[in-house]
Amino acid sequence: xxxxxxxxxxxxxxxxxxxxxxxxxxxxxxxxxxxxxxxxxxxxxxxxxxxxxxxxxxxxxxxxxxxxxxxxxxxxxxxxxxxxxxxxxxxxxxxxxxxxxxxxxxxxxxxxxxxxxxxxxxxxxxxxxxxxxxxxxxxxxxxxxxxxxxxxxxxxxxxxxxxxxxxxxxxxxxxxxxxxxxxxxxxxxxxxxxxxxxxxxxxxxxxxxxxxxxxxxxxxxxxxxxxxxxxxxxxxxxxxxxxxxxxxxxxxxxxxxxx
Length: 259
Hints:
By secondary structure, this protein is α/β, with parallel strands linked by helices. It is built from 7 helices and 11 strands. It has helices spanning 14-23, 71-82, 109-119, 141-156, 220-225, 245-248, 251-258, and strands at residues 2-6, 28-34, 53-59, 62-67, 90-97, 123-129, 163-169, 177-179, 188-195, 201-208, 229-235. The strands form 2 sheets. A 9-stranded mixed sheet has the order 3-4-2-1-5-6-7-11-8, sandwiched between helices. Strands 9-10 form a two-stranded antiparallel sheet. The longest helix is centred in the middle third of the chain and has 16 residues, at 141-156.
């Protein structure tokens, strides 16, 4: 089995090291990860600047590269360059420092790089772990072992096409694992404005989330907060919303505009 691994915390992050070590016990691992922190870049792809790729190390069952691009760039680089002739059986992303649940789906580089794998026809899992109050992860090993177990299982029993798995773990001991759905995050942002040495404005974004909402029961948030690992299968073929066309469109006016 061949596995391609990336993350959005950077190639030197502890989470990706633990994940790569664990997965290399059951598969040949190729790590291609950003050369620096690239959290919350979503599905960003680099088109207007060149990228660089460097091999950092090679040993039995594990090769590690760093890439100057985004997490999704790393997957594209892996599938279309590094592993072009020997494509991976699985893509695993993480282990992210901090949970990726609810609306994190839309901005997380960890999730987006797994999505890129699934869109390319490769079985894909995103893996994230909650932190303590000081933003530290007590141990990545338990969730790495769970990810390895899932990887072995879906290698033998593939997921449906265009479906990826989002795995999240709580801080501390994991009680069990639950199949969940995405909750809502209800993001709000504080903008912090400061002055630099030239008295010019610069800004920091500070994001706050409120996960308790009408989708709480059975959600990824509920599972993680109650001490369970959360496994959310995500269908990338988003269903079309059902709305009444006449409530949002004046068809006669549009018809006149197009004549």
